[in-house]
Structure formats: C-alpha cells, structure tokens
Amino acid sequence: MSDTALQFPAGARMRRSDGEANGPNETEIVRIRRRQNRALDTRQKIITAALAEFADRGFAGASTRAVAAAAGVQHPLVNYHFQSKEGLWRAVLAETVGHFMQQFRARLAGLRGVDDVTKLRLVQEDFVRFAAQNPHFHLLMSQEARRSSKRLNWLVKEFVRPYFTEVTALIRSAQHAGRYAEGDPVHLQYLFIGATTRIFSLAAEVKQIAGASPFTPAMLEQHVAACLGLFFRPPSEAASAGARGTGGNRPRPNGVRKTRARM
Hints:
The protein is an all-alpha fold.
C-alpha cells in the first residue's frame, strides 16, 4: 500500500478553521502510517519464516505456530494476516515464485527483437542467479512437486506451465540453430533446473568438499558458466553441424573418405 493510500479509522478527522470536518490531522496520519508499516513488517516476517518452514517440512509437516515463533510474532497474527495455513502457503508462493515470474516476463519483454539464443542464455543465467539468491526456492518447489495435490495443480497452472511454455519454445529455437543440446526440451529444462539448484541445496556439504561456499561470488560465477556450458553450444559447433548436413562426404575417423565401390 502506498503512503497516499491510507485507511483512516472512524472518527479520525480534523477540523478546518471554519469548524467543518476535513479528514485526519497530521498527528493521526503519522500514527496510521506507523501502524500500517508495522503490519507490513509483520506480514513480511511471517512470509520469510514460512518460506523456510514449508521448504524444510513441506505443507503437511509445516506448523503455523513454528512459523510464528520463527518470525517472533504472536500466533494469532498469522491467521489475522493470512486466514489459514493454505492462505499462508499461497502468499509464500506469490512472494517467491510469483516474484520470479515477474522478473522472467520483464526480462523477456526487455529482449524483444533479440535473437532466441541470446534470450535463452540470459533467462537461463537469470535462473541460476535467482536460485543462488533464494536457496529455499527449489526446496519449496521440490516439497510440493513430490505428490499430486490441489496445491500442485494450482502451482502448475499459475506458474510452472507458463514458465515451461516460454522456455521450451526458446530451447527448440536454439536447437534449430544448432546452439543448444539435443533432446526433448522439457526433459532438458528439468536437467538444467537440477544442475542449477542442487549445489545450493547442499551448500554445507559443498563447502566441506569444495572448500568454498557456492554462494561466494567467485564460485557462483563458476557455477553460472558451468551450467550454461553444459547445455549451450558455441557458434563454431553450429556451423560444423550445418556443414555436415549439406550432404558432402564426411571424413572417416582415419582420414579416409568413403567412396562408392565401382562396378
């Protein structure tokens, strides 16, 4: 809610010099803004705590009392702001997946006129960086995707399917240009998501084995480059693939060209 869109309690009005009621006075406006800011702050604390709770325990195992305790608020405030456990879950998804989809669509809108390979490379890189900035994101999605439910149906309809529709279209275009790994685009995107997010889910173990946290800037850049390198093909390979498809004689491994036997 913007600062100008204030909700004033009944009776919170001030008097003009002629005695006519003319809205709240400045002191009351300050009090109202403070209350609204506190409410927004409380709501955000609850969402942040709930993200970790749902990511760690799933919907069935999550506790709104545990969320309230982690957020440092009274338990009734959870129901006050979100009405129910499912209402809280949806708010968490809107805050995380919804925010990602907003960024994703804004990125595509800003890339109108750009070739599909470049678009794909940029949105895939964005995904890797988003996963690093939101390590609970993949855990939350994994928890819900394990089994069929009405919540999963809603999640797929609102977020997952629209995202896959856009990305797989770009993958097909990049494959046609010889610039992306061959295979079913849906399968490839799930492979990309797994390669991208797993290292952040296992951050503590990775730090012990690799000697550095995957969240450090240097390792993050290495991870971005590695993930993109697994799936994208350089222009030189695309050109070579195009040449092979022209029907010319293809060199044999020993350098001898295959020739037709003469009759």
